Amino acid sequence: MSAPLDKEFAFLLEIEKLKSVSRATPVADNSRRENSAEHSWTLALYALVLADQAAPGVDVMRAVKMLLIHDLVEIDLGDVPIHSQGGTAHSSTAIQAAEAKAAERIFGLLPKPLGDDLHALWHEFEAAETPTAIYAKSLDRVQPVMLNLAGGGGSWLEYDVSWDQLETRVGAKIARGLPGVWAAVQARIRPWFTARGR
Predict the structure, then answer these.
(1) Pairwise CA distance, residues 158 & 47, whole Å
(2) In which element (H, E) is residue 179 found?
(3) DSSP label at 54?
(4) In 3-state terms, the chain is what percent helix, strand and coil (to 5)?
């Protein structure tokens, strides 16, 4: 077997670990928590299905690639729920450094230039400066909202999330890349928060 193929198989075996990383958000029927691999796969479909909402300049297939790899660093770090106390520290220097180290290790398993290309794609997603990365980041925030709504509140109940917190931590990021989607999502979720005095 060739050395590049050995490295590709090593990477593919390593990323299987993402299936064991539990997230705070339950699946739609509220029967269990979603894992990070399921989240990534679902986001890839969100990118395809909601492509008509993408801003000019968005490369939807590039966004699909970003979304398939964006959480691979959770193999090393686990998931930090956005509404947990640690979740508001996602932008901290320590978290960013740990994620960068994990990305270097995981993408470093691949042969060059493939590993370098995927690593650069991960950095583009994290920076959220290109139209494609902004689109992908917005989708990353939409999907858990839809699951929480479908599951009767999900992690919103667990973390006692208020409407203001949701708008600040999630809504602003969705609206940045998908304003029409955020408007439609708001109409669906606002009654849930209003009914509970949140």
Answers:
(1) 28
(2) helix 179-195
(3) P
(4) 70, 5, 25
Amino acid at 137: K
Which pTM was predicted? 0.93
Query: Any idea where the domains of the chain sit in the sequence?
Result: 3-195
Give the gyration radius of the chain's Cα atoms. Answer: 17
What Cα–Cα distance (Å) separates residue 164 from each residue in 18, 158, 188? Answer: 31, 16, 16
Residue 189 CA to residue 23 CA, distance in Å, equals 21
Any idea which architecture 3-195 has in CATH?
A: Orthogonal Bundle (1.10)
Cα separation, 118 vs 104, whole angstroms: 10
Q: Which long-range contacts (CB under 8 A, 24 or more apart) does 51-57 make?
A: 53/178, 53/180, 53/181, 54/131, 54/135, 54/178, 55/131, 55/134, 55/135, 55/177, 56/131, 57/130, 57/131, 57/132
Digit-coded pLDDT (tens) for 23-72: 999 999 999 999 999 999 999 999 999 999 999 999 999 999 999 999 99
Which residue intervals of 108-178 are DSSP H helices? 114-127, 131-150, 154-158, 163-166, 172-177
The phi, psi pair for 68, rounded to 5°, reads: -70, -25
Tens of pLDDT, residue by residue over 7-27, are 999 999 999 999 999 999 999
Q: What is the pLDDT of residues 84-101, one digit of tens each?
A: 665 554 557 888 899 999
